[in-house]
Design a protein that fits this description.
six-stranded parallel β-sheet
């Protein structure tokens, strides 16, 4: 602290030893620490240090775990800062991955569930020293027109796409980006794609209600937005449910509502029927139907039953009882990051094969079987 033109704690112009040491360390930090400096301190070759520093804990060549940990610790102690530009030129890699989402300034929260996948992607990339940048759909359209330095100068090693986009966007992206991993999108090819097995989800909910003794079910959906591409999950879930219903003899009725305030929701027996199970096509539709039912004084599983082929992490906290086919979007993000790293490593080789991921059935407590069920007695 500066007081009256002198350093606090200094008397008669003398400076404390601690201040001298701090100044000395500051001066030393200005000196560029090299890989050779680290190698000498650890007692290994510069080549070993280079492999560990440039690859992280999982890519340290033949170095033992103890040696890798020692190298990383010494590098941190010496204040080693790699030259990112030189490293990028040497490896022909910027260690920079973009994630494309459908959000835009006009539709800021159009796909909040993508955040779960983004966190998983970041988890899978950060241990390998990669940076992650979010690219919104509006930004991409501008970038493809030539306005982005990242695309113009090829500063991205690849892009992980989340959700469905138009064909021109898909084709334009692959024309300017060296690698693309299609995650939870409508693109499905033998390599480079990751999807949830949505047919399995639709089949699973029908199998579950069949075991509970239901013979009728109502698949409830809202109209698809014309300004957006229809996501494959909505098509595949329903197709899986139809196939299972046909196999098991379940009468599956499809109800398309104009929205949560559609008059059909209020009509007795149209949506909520004790003898039928309601199957909202998404988590958001499930929330809307639950709120509409509450406005009518109805509650699952006492007045009607509900199962869902969709899931979200937040349900484990806010609606754990919803009977559903559950799936971890976070884990899907981790798999997407791993696939991108495999594509980067497999230069000139076969790209990693596409993957269909399955979840598991969460029984919950919103479906007990046909018929109204008595509520617990209210304590006197």
């Amino acid at each position: 602290m500066i007081r009256n033109g002198t350093l606090d704690g200094a008397q008669g112009g003398a400076t404390r030893p601690g201040v001298l040491r701090s100044a000395s360390r500051a001066k030393e930090s200005l000196v560029q620490v090299t890989l050779n400096d680290i190698a000498k301190r650890v007692g290994v070759s510069q080549q070993v240090v280079s492999k560990v520093i440039n690859g992280g804990r999982s890519r340290g060549g033949n170095a033992s775990a103890a040696t890798r940990d020692r190298i990383l610790k010494v590098a941190a102690e010496l204040g080693y800062r790699p030259n990112a530009a030189a490293k990028a030129m040497r490896e022909r890699s910027w260690r920079h991955i973009g994630v494309l989402v459908r959000n835009s300034p006009a539709r800021r929260l159009i796909h909040p569930l993508a955040f779960e996948t983004i966190l998983g992607i970041n988890e899978g990339l950060q241990s390998e020293g990669y940076m992650l940048s979010i690219i919104r759909i509006d930004d991409l359209e501008h970038d493809l027109a030539g306005g982005s330095r990242a695309f113009r100068e090829n500063m991205l090693d690849g892009v992980i796409v989340i959700d469905a986009f138009t064909r021109p966007i898909e084709e334009g992206l692959e024309a300017v980006v060296p690698r693309v991993v299609w995650t939870d999108s409508n693109v499905w090819r033998p390599t480079g794609c990751i999807q949830r097995d949505e047919c399995w989800a639709g089949e699973t909910v029908i199998d579950a209600i069949h075991r509970l003794g239901y013979t009728r079910a109502r698949w409830v959906t809202f109209p698809y937005r014309r300004d957006l591409v229809t996501h494959f999950s909505l098509v595949d879930r329903y197709a899986g449910a139809v196939a299972a219903a046909s196999r098991l003899g379940i009468d599956l009725e499809r109800i398309e509502l104009e929205g949560p305030n559609d008059p059909q929701v209020l009509e007795p027996g149209v949506v909520f029927d004790p003898e039928s199970v309601v199957i909202p096509c998404t988590v958001n539709v499930a929330r809307c139907l639950s709120q509409s039912a509450a406005g009518l004084g109805l509650t699952a599983p006492y007045d009607f039953s509900m199962v869902c082929p969709d899931s979200a992490d937040e349900l484990s906290r806010f609606w754990p009882g919803l009977s559903r086919a559950t799936f971890s979007r976070f884990d899907m993000g981790v798999v997407a990051a791993r696939m991108m790293l495999e594509e980067i490593d497999s230069v000139g080789e076969q790209e990693p094969p596409s993957i269909k991921l399955r979840g598991h059935w969460h029984p919950g407590c919103t479906a007990w079987g046909p018929g109204p069920h008595d509520r617990p007695a209210t304590p006197a």
